[in-house]
Amino acid sequence: MSAIFTLHGEARLQQDIKKSRFLAQATAVDDVDAALVFFARVGARDATHNCWAYRIGAQYRFNDDGEPGGSAGRPILLAIEGQGLDRVAVVVTRWFGGIKLGVGGLVRAYGGCAAECLRLAAKRELVERIHARVRCDFSAAATLYARLREFDAIKHSEHAFADGVELELDVPSAQVAALTAFVRDLTRGRGTVALPP
Description:
The chain is of the alpha+beta class. The protein folds into 2 domains: 4-126, Ribosomal Protein S5, domain 2 (2-Layer Sandwich), CATH 3.30.230; 129-194, Alpha-Beta Plaits (2-Layer Sandwich). The chain contains 5 helices and 11 strands, in the order E-E-E-H-E-E-H-E-H-E-E-H-E-E-H-E. It has helices at 32-42, 73-82, 102-120, 138-147, 176-186; strands at 4-7, 11-17, 20-28, 49-56, 59-63, 88-95, 123-126, 129-136, 154-161, 164-172, 192-194. Strands 2-3-6-4-5 form a 5-stranded antiparallel sheet, with helices on both faces. Strand 9 and strand 10 form a beta hairpin. Helix 2 packs parallel to helix 3 (102-120). The chain is rod-shaped, with a radius of gyration of 23 Å.
C-alpha cells in the first residue's frame, strides 16, 4: 500500500494571469468543520471570488463561488487528488483584472494555481493509528512507560487497578504487532493488548 500524505502546515502561492490576481492557500485539516473554518478565515472579503475544495478521506466538496459551474472548485479538487493528498483544504482567491478568461482559462488558472501551491508545499506522511488498551502488572509498568516512545505510541489515559495498570494508547498500525510482542515478553504472557473489533 502506498503512503498517503497531507500538508505539513499552511502554504500560499500567488500568480497573476491576464491581469487577474490568484492567491492559493492550503492547509491540512482533520475534519469538515476545520476546512470550513479555514475557508472563512483566509477568504478575502474584497476579492471577486473565493473558490475552494477539500478532500478528507472519502469526503470531498468544492465551491465555485460565482464562477461558471465546474470552472474553479472542481479543478482545485482535482489538484488535491492529482498529487495524492488527503486531509487537505485549498482556497483560491481571485481579484478580477478586467480580462475574461473563459471557462477553459478559468479551469487552467484555478487548477494550475492550486496544483503549484500544493506541489511546493511541505508535506508529511499520514500514519494510520489504532486505539489500544494495554494492561500489565505494576512491576512491568515502569519499563512499559520508558519504552512507549520506541513504538511511537501516544498515551491518552491511565487507570490503576488492584493488580496493575491499563493504558489507553494510539499506536501506528505498523507498530501494533511489535508492541503486542513486547508486552507479551515483558510480562511473560500476563499482559494484554486489546484492540477495537
